[in-house]
Amino acid sequence: MGAGLASKLPNVGTTIFTVMSKLATETGAINLSQGFPGFDCAPELVSLVEHYMRKGFNQYAPMTGVPVLREALAQKTFEQYGVAYDPDTEVTVTSGATEAIFAAVTAVVRPGDEVLVIEPAYDSYVPAIELNGGIPVYVTLTPPDYSIDWQAVREKITDKTRLILVNTPHNPTGHVWTTDDLNKLAELIYDRNIWIVSDEVYEHILFDGRTHHSLMTHPVLQERTFVVGSFGKTYHITGWKIGYCLAPKSLSVEFRKIHQYLTFSTVTPIQYALADYLKQPEPYQQLSAFYQRKRDLFLDGLRSSRFTIKPAEGSFFQTVSYAAITNEPDYDLAIRLTNEIGVAAIPVSVFYHQKNDYKILRFCFAKEDAVLQEAADRLSKL
After folding, report:
1. Would residue 257 count as lying in a domain?
2. Which residue segment(s) compose the domain that 334 sits in?
3. pTM for the full model?
4. What is the pLDDT of residues 295-334, one digit of tens each?
5. Closest to 256 in 3D by CA, of 76, 67, 91, 72
């Protein structure tokens, strides 16, 4: 018998999302843990995919994405943010935002490079860094508002810092960056050889009149940032796994070298369908109002509960503090809530590298209204 295979990710096991979704299924609990919509996409979008399948658009797409989709993305981006990306050289379609993040990290990070990770952080960031020989360096955000202490960021930057991973609107906390955040980041890196991967998959989900300040809108940041987006979050099609990366030509050249060996190309008929659907701005323009109503419905249902709540600023996640209810670890409480009252959540400690437990749970409110009301009723009994 040969020697055992040494793991490249020895600290990675089954993700919490898999654990909680499986437990929710086994117990029949309401699943507010994993971040996917509990409703279908627009029938028109399905019809468009079928149309292109039947027309025979079923072979490989170009590695960078079908031209009409890249052009539609460039046009939408210019109309929304006033930033021009060349669809031929600066827009790349990917098999989901997670693939885009991995390709961007791989394009930049060499063994021994340090990468700043602002935590709590989405679970794909650190494995992408470590698989490329990078060293994650953590900047830790704390409740209740999870705003960034830019002095703390400054203290973490060294001559080895090569990349900073950012996320706004933020998963899991729902925190949204301001223009001041963009300016502070630009001040830190304008004279350094540091790149940025900006995860902006919730760009169309902001609440209470807030605006999404994409890093592309700041000239210093735009020239060194890979902006990552997702159709899955915008159009309720997470299972289609279609994302994209917007980056200056010099960055896109290196990004595409990695992308072509990760997936080469992304599913063809869906790209054509999305190119058509993007011509209508209403679906993404109405998304904030759609999700704000769901957030408020869920929060109204929790008013009589003993949770402490700060309304999410963006994303389709709401965090709540249970510190006034029990002192048990957040992981244990998440399991108990699923088993005993039939609502599955995510313990926020899993998003911290040292499993910091601030007695916070994360709920996904991208669900049907009746499901949210029933979940809130159950949670209020805790």
Report:
1. yes
2. 16-41+285-380
3. 0.97
4. 999 999 999 999 999 999 999 999 999 999 999 999 999 9
5. 91
